[in-house]
Amino acid sequence: MNEVTFSSYLRSLVVGANTQVPVASGGYVIATNFDNAATTPPFCAVMDEIIAFAPWYSSVHRGKGYKSIVTSDIYEQARQTVKQFVCAGANDTAVFTKSTTESINLLANVLANDGGEKLILATDMEHLANDLPWRRHFKVDYACLDAFGRLSLKNVEDKLQQHKGKVALVAVTGASNVTGYINPVHSIARLAHKHGAKIFVDGAQLVPHMPFCMSKGQATECIDFLAFSAHKMYAPFGAGVLIGNSEDLLQAEPLLWGGGAVDLTSQQFIEWDAPPGRYEAGTPNVMGVVALVAAIRTLEANDLEMIHQYESSLISTVIAGLTDISGIRLYSVPTCDDERVSLISFTMEGIDHGLLAQALSQEAGIAVRNGLFCAHPYVEKLLKISDEELKYYHTHDDASVPGLVRISLGLYNTRQEVELFLRTVRRIAADPAFYAKKYQASMRNDRCCNSWQSDFC
């Protein structure tokens, strides 16, 4: 299958790919969504599965009615589907949460309840979801970056040696949501295990884009804990996953206390359920889990490795095109040699990141993300913002905080959309002052916003 045919087929898998949006010049254009790192549109198969399941929807583990039994079976069978998707170990269990963020908070709570003083080794490139929960419970140290914003594997090893067996967990992103760099997590796992630590991988930006195996290679390279979110892999409805060894999850009290998390309980004692039920208090989000499973089946049916290669080809074209535009600075190695997922961040000389994002949207219907991407320390380091500057921004709410513009691709994006994006960036870069002035008055165009709201309602 050639690229054009494959691209057209992939686009047909997604709901709303040809939705039109208003632009500043008047009229409408087909929306170009280059903000997939934040969230992705749903697969058609996901929506079909939700509609098919809806008549059978009932409570999970809370009744003997036929629909309740069917729903409970579907919910429990989903754990095995999720585990197989990421090659989890036989002793691993999948806990369903609402997001990667909740999964990490859950794991932090588990480790904090396990007793003893622990040190967490994170990195300078983490999303705040893989930073703040560790800060809440533990002392945290950070492995540093090289000059291009890549994680220094040598510094990871140096930190582990420096702390002499005191590191309980290495927490690292599988792929950065700022630069797209893919970290060698199995090599990091080998280092962590060598020094008596376990490893957690934030898979939110990695799992949707390429095959991932927790139990790859030798036992020393296996991943102890993994989290990812359905909404970044074409399945809305708020499901997330934490996968880890059942024994590691057995000793702690749950993060959320309530019905569904217990066995026999009285006013005199609490008997917690075994994992994963212990960590799923309340009524489970079975709709979200059904959506997640449907998305996994769609990704598996369409060869994730081929999808990764297709997305890699597109982002390589983006990087090459941006490199040739005067005034553009890329926040990564300017070659395409480093393995990455399909995203890249950049700035344009002469125009604020927010105004540039606004111009792309209003001029051509291209949605990108701008700002700090919930990875504040990473972006601050990439931009070389000093402590004095950070203090100033912290104490002056009216100051415009520096940031980046991020383009992140999904499997349904096309080469034609990439070409449109590059043409639009070139046009803005030719006269950034004009576009900065045009969109300075307001970060939102009231005409377009009101028109969208009117059409939607």
Automatic annotation (TrEMBL):
<dbReference type="GO" id="GO:0031071">
    <property type="term" value="F:cysteine desulfurase activity"/>
</dbReference>
<dbReference type="InterPro" id="IPR015421">
    <property type="entry name" value="PyrdxlP-dep_Trfase_major"/>
</dbReference>
<dbReference type="InterPro" id="IPR000192">
    <property type="entry name" value="Aminotrans_V_dom"/>
</dbReference>
<comment type="similarity">
    <text>Belongs to the class-V pyridoxal-phosphate-dependent aminotransferase family. Csd subfamily.</text>
</comment>
<keyword id="KW-0808">Transferase</keyword>
<dbReference type="InterPro" id="IPR020578">
    <property type="entry name" value="Aminotrans_V_PyrdxlP_BS"/>
</dbReference>
<protein>
    <submittedName>
        <fullName>Class V aminotransferase</fullName>
    </submittedName>
</protein>
<keyword id="KW-0663">Pyridoxal phosphate</keyword>
<feature type="domain" description="Aminotransferase class V">
    <location>
        <begin position="33"/>
        <end position="421"/>
    </location>
</feature>
<dbReference type="GO" id="GO:0008483">
    <property type="term" value="F:transaminase activity"/>
</dbReference>
<dbReference type="InterPro" id="IPR015422">
    <property type="entry name" value="PyrdxlP-dep_Trfase_small"/>
</dbReference>
<keyword id="KW-0032">Aminotransferase</keyword>
<dbReference type="InterPro" id="IPR015424">
    <property type="entry name" value="PyrdxlP-dep_Trfase"/>
</dbReference>
<dbReference type="Pfam" id="PF00266">
    <property type="entry name" value="Aminotran_5"/>
</dbReference>
